[in-house]
């Protein structure tokens, strides 16, 4: 619990986010399944513009990664709701999101956590994913000013999904079916296909994190401090 929130505020935003995911129109069936099985954890924090909760958030990500490694399973997500702030534009949210991600990654490196060898730390690589506690993560950002309805929530949110889950779904032959279901539901909600949508492993996922339609000239501001001394990923070495 963050000390900057008023009594009852944490429970309010946790319930509000869970209701958002439960809503019939919300397209992500993976998140719905995680919530239904009790494997969607919602952590209420202060402000996405502040590093106040960064140590706490990183600790939660480490525990999430360690628990998953000890007992793997599909459809697990951890969401951080920033109850004390509201992004006023997509650009401002994107900037704050990457500031938090950079801070969290710096802490992971400082604690000498290994970068997941199955993914790349280069945000320009099609194999890029973040890494915390040695596990790769994909981030989904939501906020009040998001252009896509599925990303539009009353407060900024960062949802962290484990990279290994995508690979497991692919190995089990379920990835494409789930992906097509989500796309169809998203089109029903928004009226159009998400222009930033890309298959995992075909282009860098970094451009998808914020939900903003970024131009081809966009460059990710992220730089992991472990990159210089890090060997190739398993995928890169095989190419």
TrEMBL record:
Residues 202-216, 230-239 have a biased composition (Polar residues). It comes from the Bacteria. InterPro entries: Uncharacterised_YqcI/YcgG. Pfam families: YqcI_YcgG (PF08892). Residues 202-239 are annotated as: Disordered. This is YqcI/YcgG family protein. It comes from Novosphingobium fluoreni.
């Amino acid at each position: 619990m963050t000390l900057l929130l008023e009594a009852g505020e944490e429970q309010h935003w946790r319930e509000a986010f869970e209701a958002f995911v439960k809503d019939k129109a919300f397209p992500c069936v993976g998140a719905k399944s995680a919530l239904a099985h009790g494997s969607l954890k919602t952590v209420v924090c202060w402000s996405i513009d502040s590093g106040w909760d960064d140590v706490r958030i990183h600790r939660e990500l480490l525990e999430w990664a360690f628990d998953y490694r000890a007992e793997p399973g599909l459809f697990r997500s951890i969401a951080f709701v920033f109850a004390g702030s509201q992004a006023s534009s997509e650009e401002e949210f994107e900037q704050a999101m990457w500031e938090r991600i950079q801070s969290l990654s710096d802490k992971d490196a400082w604690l000498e956590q290994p970068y997941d060898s199955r993914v790349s730390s280069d945000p320009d690589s099609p194999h890029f994913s973040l890494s915390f506690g040695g596990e790769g993560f994909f981030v989904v950002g939501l906020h009040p000013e998001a252009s896509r309805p599925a990303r539009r929530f009353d407060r900024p949110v960062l949802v962290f999904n484990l990279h290994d889950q995508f690979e497991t779904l692919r190995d089990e032959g379920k990835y494409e079916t789930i992906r097509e279901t989500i796309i169809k539901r998203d089109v029903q909600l928004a009226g159009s296909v998400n222009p930033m949508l890309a298959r995992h492993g075909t282009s860098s996922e970094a451009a998808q994190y914020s939900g903003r339609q970024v131009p081809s000239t966009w460059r990710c501001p992220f730089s992991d401090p472990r990159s210089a001394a890090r060997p190739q990923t398993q995928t890169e070495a095989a190419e």
